[in-house]
Design brief:
Chain lengths: 414, 144
């Protein structure tokens, strides 16, 4: 894909990179509006995975033959790419995980169980995906700490006026929050939450699963202690992600999973832990997937995260302008200015499953359900919503197909 | 026939728009509620037994769900009235699926079978009949 000097995204050039668009339904490619669940993959990533298996595959770190050297180099190059992508100070601060969920669980178990107790408060938000909500709720419960959440208002924004009340509940030890809401697209003021955590001497943990695909991230500028992301949401493979952690904290933490590769010495009476990041990477890693993660980062950076963000912003503005044309539609979430490429809605009394099913017959792919955000939907008094989400390959014409499809759904089931 | 017409058959749309036995019975002899964890849909079922204490005399259902889950549960209520608790506890899911009679993907199968699972939980609570194996061991059924 060629990049113009202004870094404006050329969507047709991008689309030429994505083989899924060669799959047709009724003579048209899928209008894939479900990238917040998982992004499609460009051929640069797909082919790169196969190439790596063909030419460079072995287990990493211990073999002394050429194939193992290539595999280790590929895996560690990918770590450097993730480091640069997040602007972390050192590769020691980049742990490969299975994804965002594992990254958050790592912090919750390895840091939480050693550092939390009665009188401590763990803070998450009512906007969070279950992957941030449930581990902290569970570990707080296990350790006797209080679990509190920052509430959300009707528009889907965090109610920051509640922070003082939450601070009164005890010693704030953890502030864990999603950067971008997967359900509503709300972009949270994470800078403010990180500053609030610091003020209370708490650690800050950012779930960047929905942020990393769409905007540039600089963990040093943000100042967070931990940040988790998944490769599959940013055009990379499944089963791999990364956890950024400040070295000073990671060094003092207990390990999370135990086994091969994460040790220094194993004796009958005592085992000692390996250096960072090996200490947190027990067992054989998702080697080729990590390499694919690096290729996906290359791909996005070639296009430019700023260009991707601008492209999606224009799409959200367009969707928020067109969707109200559909009779009976209710839109949820903040205005476009505080929203990433996600639009949630309901269509009269028609259940989202049925809306998504009928759109599916038309080749329009959206998601219906609770989006792993049951506390949020209960707060908004909803059982389920429809969600359309956009990415670098999304076009205005696909949003038009969504609008046309919704008119059709209304006609058939309304 | 279009994919829409295959799935949203007339009989499905009829049960969806005019559900049979909709509501809750108060008082009732057995009651249970359940959720589909994939989509968060909920079904609540209550029922009353006849004088013999075993035959299902009346049944009611409520909740929020898609056309498939609502229609399937509505059809289920018609299917089980007059049957014994033991008979219904052993009712194979295929019997209900035959009645529904539409092609279902694995995700939609969960919608279609939610009501049957909840009904079996209600019978289990009231009569100790066996739970369907996919419901066994769940910690939110209030069974322990």
């Amino acid at each position: 894909m060629t990049v113009t000097p202004q870094r404006i995204l050329d969507v047709e050039a991008v689309r030429a990179d994505f083989p899924f668009l060669e799959e047709f339904v009724d003579g048209r490619p899928f209008a894939f509006l479900d990238s917040a669940a998982s992004a499609q993959k460009p051929r640069q990533v797909i082919d790169g995975l196969a190439d790596f298996y063909r030419h460079s595959y072995a287990n990493v770190h211990r073999g002394v033959y050429a194939l193992a050297d290539r595999a280790t180099a590929g895996y560690e190059d990918a770590r450097e790419k993730v480091r640069a992508f997040l602007n972390a100070a050192s590769e020691r601060e980049i742990i490969f995980t299975r994804g965002t969920t594992e990254g958050i669980n790592l912090v919750a178990y390895a840091w939480g169980l050693d550092n939390l107790g009665p009188g401590d408060v763990v803070v998450a938000t009512d906007l969070d995906h279950h992957s941030n909500f449930v581990p902290w709720q569970y570990i707080a419960g296990r350790s006797g700490a209080t679990f509190a959440t920052i509430p959300v208002d009707d528009a889907g924004d965090l109610v920051l006026e509640e922070l003082d009340r939450i601070a009164g509940l005890g010693r704030i030890k953890v502030v864990a929050a999603g950067w971008v809401s997967n359900a509503l697209g709300t972009v949270n003021p994470v800078e403010l939450l990180v500053a609030w955590a610091k003020e209370h001497g708490a650690i800050s943990v950012i779930d960047a699963a929905q942020a990393a695909p769409h905007r540039a991230i600089d963990v040093q500028a943000l100042g967070c202690d931990f940040l988790a992301l998944s490769a599959h949401k940013l055009c990379g493979p499944t089963s791999v992600g990364a956890l950024y952690g400040r070295a000073e904290l990671l060094e003092r933490m207990s390990p999370f999973q135990l086994g091969g590769h994460m040790i220094r010495q194993v004796r009958h009476d005592r085992t000692t832990w390996g250096e960072l990041p090996a200490k947190f990477e027990a067992g054989t890693a998702s080697i080729v997937e990590a390499v694919g993660f690096g290729l996906a980062i290359d791909y996005l950076q070639d296009i430019g995260l700023d260009a991707i963000e601008a492209h999606e912003h224009a799409l959200v503005e367009y969707a928020l302008e067109r969707l109200p044309e559909v009779p009976g539609i209710t839109l949820y979430g903040p205005p476009a200015s505080r929203r990433a490429g996600v639009v949630a809605f309901n269509l009269g009394d028609i259940h989202p499953h049925d809306v998504a099913q009928v759109l599916g017959f038309e080749g329009v792919c959206i998601r219906a359900g609770h989006h792993c955000t049951q506390p949020l939907l209960r707060r908004l008094d909803l059982a389920a919503t429809n969600r359309a989400s956009f990415y670098l390959y999304t076009t205005r014409a696909e949003i038009d197909r969504l609008v046309d499809g919704l008119h059709l759904v209304s006609g058939k089931l309304g | 026939m279009s994919e829409f017409d295959q799935m949203y058959r007339e009989v499905i749309l009829d049960h969806y728009k005019s559900p049979r036995h909709h509501g809750s019975l108060d008082p009732c002899d057995a009651q249970a509620e359940g959720q589909n964890p994939l989509c968060g849909d909920e079904v609540v079922i209550s029922l009353r037994f006849a004088a013999d204490g075993d035959t299902i005399a009346d049944i009611g259902f409520s909740g929020r769900g898609c056309a498939i889950s609502q229609a399937a549960t509505s059809m289920l209520t018609e299917l089980v009235i007059g049957k014994s608790a033991t008979e219904v506890a052993q009712l194979p899911k295929e019997t209900l699926l035959d009645e529904i009679g539409i092609p279902l993907t694995p995700a939609r199968l969960k919608c279609a079978l939610l009501g049957l699972g909840v009904l079996k939980v209600a019978l289990h609570r009231a009569k100790g009949t066996p739970l369907p194996k996919e419901w066994a061991g769940l910690d939110d059924l209030g069974l322990r």
